[in-house]
Amino acid sequence: MLSNLQLLVKRVHSTIAYIMRRAFISLVSKVLLYQPLNQKMSCTSVVGLGNPGMGSTRHSVGMAVLRALAGRLGVAEHWRVDRQVSGELVLSEQEGVQLVLLKPRLLMNINGASVAKAAEKFKIMPEDIYLIHDELDKPLGKFAMKQGGSARGHNGVRSCMDCLKTDVMPRMRIGIGRPAGKVSVECHVLGRFSREEQELVRAVLEQSAELLLQHITASSSEGTGAQGMTLPQGGRVTVKT
Prior knowledge:
With 241 residues, the protein is of the alpha/beta class.
């Protein structure tokens, strides 16, 4: 009888130790993976629009710019999946601005749900949410900021507008150009950049990420948010000959 009691006590102790160990691991993981927001700082979200698992396609060039921005900020290795927002997040601080970088893990046509969830979680106003997306009507190599307005046929932007109930979000539009010949728009946007185009794309990623960061920090320093200042005009990268 005594041996059975001792065995039961041992099992209880083992169970308690296991539960405590799992709780400790969970707590440490949260501390390491979840950087708390500094409530004294202004908070801005930067969203790279695209399709999960298709990061090298023209349609997902917004995600590529976001990755370049994360590298510029030194947080490229700190992405984490956040199921609450249906996306991948990384947090950073830049000149008094708390940045929430978001890659939705939903298809382009419905990724506005991820953007809205992140806005709710981090209490970010729509005017402080920057959307980065591909732009058919701009040639490859050209990029520019746009302050709100129409989605111009872009389903990802339209999804964000529908979910946030507004069109005020500033946008970084990355030109991918229209398809040549008889190639359909769908095949063009879901296709990858050619080897010849990739060198140009790399320069676009770097320069557009830098322009976006300058815009965000300048806007915050004015204390007026993204709508309170004249947006940068953008830029263009040309092929070196």
